[in-house]
Amino acid sequence: MSKTDDKSKLKKALEVARLYYEAKLGQVEIAEKLGISRPTISRLLQFAQEEGIVQIKVVDPFFSISKLEQRLCKRYDLKQVKIVYADEKNLQEQLGKKAASYLEEIVTDDDIIGVSWGKTMNEVARSLKIQSATGVKVVELKGGITYTPTPIYIERVLKNFERAFNTTAYKMPLPVVFENKQTHDIVLQDRYIKQLIELGKQANIALFTVGTVRDDALLFQTGYFNKAEIRKIQANACGDICSRFYDEQGQIAVEEINNRTVGIKLEDLKNKDYSILIAGGKRKYQAIKGALIGGYANCLITDVETAKTLLSE
């Protein structure tokens, strides 16, 4: 569809939406008035919702999202909380849309955005629209080369961020975890890698999710760890941020693995203007809570049930 066709469809959808929602005409009446079929009216109304021309909000008089967000801010010393209604089937999609919308609100010219990878981050990137901010830099916060074909979505994430901000991302062409500390230390002496790490540290906006330590965790499928290491991680950690594992108190859980990890340090996330944690669901609850106790996020995007649970304990 050409840009002209796109614009024409938007105008028609706007006209139909005004007649339906503001003038309170029925679909049959609108079809007769405009000389088009009723199924076309129905499709245009659906299109109006998808494009954000029409936004439907269900208000529960017994529950206030804003109050829940305020309580979470106070409880975990956060500057911003965004909460979505979602079930397990569409949780990542809804979190991604909300995070993309929030990012669009806060990004300004010459910002530096640090991004991680994974399924949730892929949904954020997919939901981004073309932005007006200029001079924005995008940098990968951790290595993105794996030893297995398991998808980690880093190429998709960076491609969509590049498209949205009309930029070229700074990529970290390394494994996120090396087999030994000696190799790790040698690689980090490279001038280019040092610059990447420093750029991630300078980023004023960081976007990340948390991983679990369940057997099916994405990070355990990438070939970085042997079975003994996975058992040790599971015995000591509740989750990871940017592949750095921490315990329920938010402290580094397995020091020797942390010393082999390439990417931003958890402590550096505390110095961001916006350190945005995007995660929800029962599977990730302990990892989310540990991250908040550790103080690694100052903004949280999550779902209603997770928000309630975070306040109930």
Quick synopsis:
The chain is α/β, with parallel strands linked by helices and 313 residues long. The protein has 14 helices and 8 strands.
Element-level helix/strand string: HHHHEHEHEHHHEHEEHHEHEH
Number of strands: 8
Tell me what portion of residues adopts beta-strand conformation. 5-15%
Total number of distinct structural domains: 2
Low-confidence parts:
none
Structural class: alpha/beta
Explain what the structure shows.
Pfam families: HTH_24, Sugar-bind. One of its GO terms (molecular function) is DNA binding. Belongs to the SorC transcriptional regulatory family. By secondary structure, the chain is of the alpha/beta class. It folds into 2 domains: 48 residues, Arc Repressor Mutant, subunit A (Orthogonal Bundle), CATH 1.10.10.10; 248 residues, 3-Layer(aba) Sandwich (Rossmann fold). It contains 14 helices and 8 strands. The chain has a 6-stranded parallel beta sheet with strand order 1-8-7-4-2-3, with helices on both faces. α6 links the parallel β2 and β3. α1 crosses α3. The longest helix is centred in the N-terminal third of the chain and has 20 residues. The mean pLDDT is 94.
